Amino acid sequence: YDLLIVTGAPGAGKTSVAQALVDLGSDFVVFDIDWLAEPVSMLTGRDIHTDASAWVAYGKLWFEILHSVSRNGCQPLFFCPNTPADFERQQLATWYNTCHWLLLDCDDAVRTARLDARADWSDERKQEALDDAAELREAVPERIDTSGTTPEEAAHLVLAWASRW
């Protein structure tokens, strides 16, 4: 199996688009990295969103889940904020043939407005999201701009992209 990754910095719409894709129904098994954040945080006693010391282990857990899905003959589609360099640096998996990347992105003004609507997001954390977005734009050339699309419209575009593989 190939590994299909939909990435994006915070505020790009990953969670909303992932849910819209699930609602559409497809042959893909959709996962959002945040779906296990709360129970893993409870299990480890660390906030998986902010404690960088837990990120490699969290990534390894997700890659075992994705590998298990592929072993069952299903194609996983994983939504996460990682870069290709993150995966290389962390040496997360070797079981897939090729890793294909798609970036969900939006302009910085839209991202800032989306993050302003979230509770407990500090100015520092918002700036980190803007910096992450700039890094992802450099690393992942294929992208969908979610600035003016609904999650459902973006989900259809993601599905068209994923169906190529």
List the domain count as a whole number.
1
Q: What is the count of DSSP helices, taking H or I runs of 4+ residues?
A: 7
Mean pLDDT: 93
Largest sheet: 5 strands, parallel
Structure commentary:
The protein has 165 residues and is an alpha/beta fold. It has one domain: P-loop containing nucleotide triphosphate hydrolases (Rossmann fold), CATH 3.40.50.300. Helices cover 49% and strands 16% of the residues. The protein contains 7 helices and 5 strands; from the N terminus they run βαβααβαβααβα. It has helices spanning 14-24, 37-44, 55-71, 84-90, 108-116, 123-139, 151-162; strands spanning 3-7, 28-32, 75-80, 99-105, 143-145. The protein has a 5-stranded parallel β-sheet with strand order 2-3-1-4-5, sandwiched between helices. Helix 1 (14-24) packs across helix 7 (151-162). The longest helix is centred in the middle third of the chain and has 17 residues, at 55-71. The protein is globular and about 45 Å long.
